[in-house]
Structure formats: structure tokens, C-alpha cells
Design a protein that fits this description.
This protein is mainly α. The chain has 16 helices and seven strands. The chain has three domains: 117 residues, Cytochrome Bc1 Complex, Chain D, domain 2, CATH 1.10.760; 76 residues, Cytochrome c-like domain (Cytochrome Bc1 Complex, Chain D, domain 2, Orthogonal Bundle); 134 residues, Rhodanese-like domain (Oxidized Rhodanese, domain 1, 3-Layer(aba) Sandwich).
Length: 359
Amino acid sequence: MTHRRNMWVAILLLAGLPAGHAAAQMPVLTEEGARQAADNYQRYCALCHGPNREGHVNDHAPSLRSRSLIESGFPMVLGEAIAYGRQGTAMGGYIDEVGGPLTRDQLIDLTLWLQREAGAERVKLGLEAVAGDVSSGAALYRQHCVECHGANGEGGTGTALGNPAMLALTPDSFLRHAIVHGRQDTPMPAFADKLSASEIDDVTAFLRSRGTGWTAEKRELRRPPPLGQYVINPDGEAPDFGKLAEGRYVSASVLDRELRAKRRMVLLDTRVTSMWQMAHIDGAVPIPYYANREEAVASLPRDGTWIVAYCECPRAAADSVVKWLREEGKFEHTAVLWEGIQGWVSLGYPVTAGDASQP
């Protein structure tokens, strides 16, 4: 099972990489895995999503037989939503790491089963930001979307779009794909023939702008600190993380507590930088897992300051960075955020948006 789990981590990582990188082999859904996944769906999911995956039976739960949702959300968006839930909605986290009933292998099988049942092939979407006019998008949203999704994105006959966890962790291309293609077997129509490409970009940009609050006038974009100024709260005391799980892992609740106490530390966002731009823990520096090791080591303090790394899958990239920091840089005071940023957001801890453009 360990090999299968590692393959899934690789797929989640590769889902965020640009075209041209080597493909990972997809885990195989066995007949026994499919049978158990079908049973788990009826036990844990049917109450809200419907016994036939039709959606909107309770709590505005979306249809899970809509091809456009599955093809654009598989595997990362779909798998992580099941694992960590959507904070602010009735969708809780179902992976055992956050108290849910499913192991990671069972979650993998459920995700593969949902894809198989929907008859959807994965559509590889990029992570690039969509350039659109937010004001125009707001007007188009009021004209075409309010009736189903609510004036403040609260949902109704349509999915709640004002959910910060969803907006913080889904790329613009996922949102745009839904607008263009609609959601089959639901009241959500395809807007490809109703709106122009630029208007669809405007609506996408408007939704993205609501990532830190539906009523926000304009989100504040943070730029990475200059080289050598990565330390958060430089005059603060060292954090008290207690005993790290497995000598490496710190929980979201403990990290949040120490950040609120203004402890001195460095936060490394080890995902691709485009994901850091969408949402990151305030103060985190984008150092992707594929960064030049020599340059990364040279940019970090060597005075014993704690360094905490996080990623999204939920730990693979951060684990790899901490491993080579310990081995090559001899950094002893290093830790990995156990839940990753998906868990961090889903548990209700704050994030901010980034700007990695050159000044």
C-alpha cells in the first residue's frame, strides 16, 4: 500500500506542474476497491450528494456525476475536497488524519470510483491566473449567477461560490472550465455560447477576487520579502512546538498558536509559485520543492531560527525540502505542517493572496 500511496502523492504533485514533465502512473481501481468505494459513498456521501450522485439532496452538495466537474477536478480538487472538506460549509473532512472515517487508500479508491462512474477523462488545466475585469465580472455575476448561487455566493440551487476554502485552493482554470461547460445533469448551463471569452474571464476574475471575503473591495496582494529577510517576527522568541510527531511534524493548531504569539520563524511554501499566489499562509516565502538547493540554503538564516515548510498534498513536497535542508544545509530546527495548506484552510486558519510579479 505504501507504493500506491506514494504514486498518488506524485500524481498530486504533477497535477500542479506545467506540461512537459514526466507523467506518473495512475493508481488502478481494483474490483474490490470499487466495491468498497461504492459502499463508502452510500455510507458517507449519499445523504447530501444523493444515492445516484445527483447532488443537491441536502446542504447544496454538488452533483458528483457531472462530467465537467469530475474531468476538471480529478484528482487534486476532488480528492482534497473529500479529504479535508470545505470549511464554512456542511462538507467536513473525511480522511482519518483529521478525524474522518477513511484511510488515504480508501480515499484514493473513492476518488477513482467517482471518476469511473462519471465516465470522465481528466482534463489537464493550467495554474495561470485569468486576466479579467473584476468590476465587469461583478456585474455579469449579478445578471447571470445570483439566482442560483446567491448575491453573496452563499449558494441555493447552485453551489456556494463564496466559500474561502474552495476559492483559495482551486485554480482559475477550474472556475473558468465550470462557467464554459456548465455542470451536466444540473441546472448549471454552459455559458460558452451565452458569454464571450472575455466576459467569462471577467466572471472568473471576479470570483477569484472574492477569495479573501465576498464583500472585500480589493484584496491585498503580498509580495515575497527580499532575499535575507525571510524571518517572521525577527524580534520574537523561538516557537514552542513541543515534541514534533515523528520528529518532523507540527499541527496546524500549534503553528497557528505560535504565529499568533508572534514567534520568530521562517515559513516556506514549497508548492509551485502560482499556487503561492492564489493563497498562502501570511509571511510564507515561495521556495518550490524543485528550487535550486544551493540558492535556497544560502537564503535561509543559519542562527537556529525555526523553519516550517508546507505544501498541499499534504506533505510530500514539504517533506522533501526539509529532508534536504537537514542533510545538505544541516538545519536542525525544521518542521513540516502536518495538514498542509489544504488542511490549514479547511480548518479555518487564515491565508492571504500573493503577487510574485517583478516590482
